[in-house]
Amino acid sequence: MSISFSGLATGLDTDSWVSALVSVKQLGVTSLQNQLSAIQQTQTTLSNLKTSFTNFQTALQALTDSLYSSSSDIFAANTATSSDESVFTATVTTDAIRDTYDITVKQLATMTTAQGVDAASEVADGNTRLSDLGIQAGTLTVYVDGVRSEINIDENDTVANLQSRLSTAGATLSIDPDTGILSIEASNSGSELRIGANTDTSNFVSLLGLEMNEDGVYQSASSVYKVTGSTVLTDANAGFTSQITEGTFTIGNATFTIDSNTTLDNIISQINNSEDSNVFASWDAANGKLVLRSTVEGSSYINVEAGTSNFTDVMGLTVTERDSSNNITSTKLVTAAQELGQNAIVNINGTDITSTSNTVTADVSRITGLTLNLKSVNTEETGDTTLTIAQDTTKITEALTEVVDAYNSLMSEIDTATAQSGDLHGETTLNTIYTTLRNTMNSAIQTDGDFSLLSQIGISTEEASSALASDTVSLTLDADELAEALAENSDSVKELLLGTNGIFKSLKSTVDNVLYSGGYFSTKESSLSTQVSNMQDRITRKQESVDTYQARLEAKFAAMETTISQLNANYSSLLSG
User: Which tens digit of pLDDT belongs to each residue from 470-515?
Assistant: First the structure.
């Protein structure tokens, strides 16, 4: 095993000597670094404590805001309770008068519906494509006197194509030109006809709703019309009772345009996507009519106006006279095409109120701050119904719970921070704040109301205590006792908490002063920051001193080695001479 020495001339381990001597000096740096860590730990503790004060301030804010704005006054908040929410529900503002009201819904408001008296579409005929009727390609099974025939339905087949194939199988298909009802019967009057099998792949039977009547004839459940959603409105062969022209028309306050490419689905989509139309449009394929349903409740007509297009005339909603240049000479709404909605009727405390909507607002009911939402009429089963408007104590309970929780957390954190081993032990100002908060919570104040102690409204350190225990900090909230106090005298509860001498008002003032820019935390944070900065400077200077000391030692030992090496060289030279 080889051994090396840093002192080549002397054979001495001068590096170890230097390290040992420097380590003694380094202890001063380490001591300062430990002091810096302690200050920084105090900064962390102070920051956490400030957060707890801020949380307490925020919790108090929810209550003290009640002093500055009626909209944020949780003591003014109301709740509306319906005795039967299947009949009506209600919402109220802070302006509503707290009372019980007898409410009877006699009639709900409904929407007006408009549709032409007669069908706007022609009845399907032999040239009508089956796919235009919604019939899918596939197979259809027909039994005549038990003999099975499978009829193929292709994508481009017409009614005439199907008639021909059914005829071959011994069945006759016809469409009544007046009613549009499709019928299929046995070609021979004495034969028995059955249509459909579980192997069929076309939707022919289900789509048409085919059912056999007493005469053994199958008939469609509704009329079969030419027009479908994909029909181009202005097409000469579209299937409408009159050809629709390009141009404009108006529904509600919205004007729509039809061009050469507009389909029935297109125009319905435009109507439904317009807020100004105030209607929902649909095509009633069973009756060949355009149906407009008002989106506004009440007994009022849907506004429909013809324009440069004859669309609304063809739909049977307007009647328009035009001159040879297509200029309107006269026009009128077909009122017979509209089934007017009805207004709502609700009885409030014996007085009937009429509303054009099932949402009965305060200006209609004459009850300030109340909105009724009517759901159904009163019946023998529902019986009499009532509305109770009362103080919304839920928000008060929630706010007080948050204050109590935030207070308990804050006081516990102060206890820990100022304890014998705490980072803020000996902080006189913080101890004073702690005492002030506890004393304020425990104080009895003079009020004009029924309550002077928090314990009287359910906030105490022990159940049924007449005062807060002076040796206990943690609080509890008895929600039932609070509810009783609010029911007894809500204004007195508010005065206790937020009045001129209000306990929570005083607490908020104390906390605000602690947190403001010149308060305890601001001052303490500034002091600690200065200490950190000064300590970092001291560490830097101390480390520089140690580094200088180490460099000086290393230089001296190096000089010693050089001197001894020269002496050794001179001595060797003398011996050799």
Answer: 445 689 999 999 999 999 999 999 999 999 889 999 999 999 999 9
pLDDT in tens, 365-391: 999 999 999 999 999 999 999 999 999
State the distance between the two ends of the chain, measured CA to CA, in whole angstroms.
Answer: 37
Neighbouring C-beta atoms of residue 131, cutoff 10 Å: 17
Listed by start position, the domains of the chain span 13-77+392-553, 79-96+350-391, 130-223, 229-339
Instruction: Retrieve residue 38's tokens.
Output: 């302690």
Output the pLDDT for position 469.
Answer: 45
CATH top class, domain 13-77+392-553: mainly alpha
**pLDDT at 8 (0 to 100):** 52
Structure-token match 């009362």, residue found: 390
Q: In Å, how far from its chain's centre is CA 376?
A: 27
With the CA atoms of 466, 468, 471 and 472 taken in that order, what torsion angle do they form, in degrees rounded to the nearest 10?
Answer: 120
527: left (phi over 0), alpha (psi -120 to 50) or beta: alpha
CB distance 252 to 278 below 8 Å: yes
Q: Using alpha carbons only, give the angle 146, 152, 154 rounded to the nearest 5 degrees.
A: 160
Beta carbons of 124 and 180 less than 8 angstroms apart: yes
Say how far apart CA 41 and CA 194 lie, in whole Å: 93
Q: What is the pLDDT of residue 177?
A: 92
Query: What strand order describes the sheet that includes 304-306?
Result: 254-258, 247-251, 304-306
Q: How many Å apart are CA 414 and CA 430, to the nearest integer?
A: 8
Contact 173, 151 (CB under 8 A): no
| Consecutive H or E run containing 51 | helix 14-64
Q: What is the pLDDT of residue 11?
A: 61
Out of 40-54, 68-82, 191-205, 345-359, which region has the weakest mean confidence (pLDDT)?
Answer: 68-82
Residues 545-559: pLDDT tens digits? 888 888 888 888 788
Number of helices (H), then strands (E), belonging to the chain: the values are 11, 26
Phi, psi of 473 (to 5 degrees): -100, -45
User: Nearest Cα to 216, choosing from 179, 251, 191, 198?
Assistant: 191
What type of residue sits at position 386?
Answer: T
Beta strands 138-144 and 193-195, pairing class: antiparallel
**Number of residues assigned to the chain:** 577
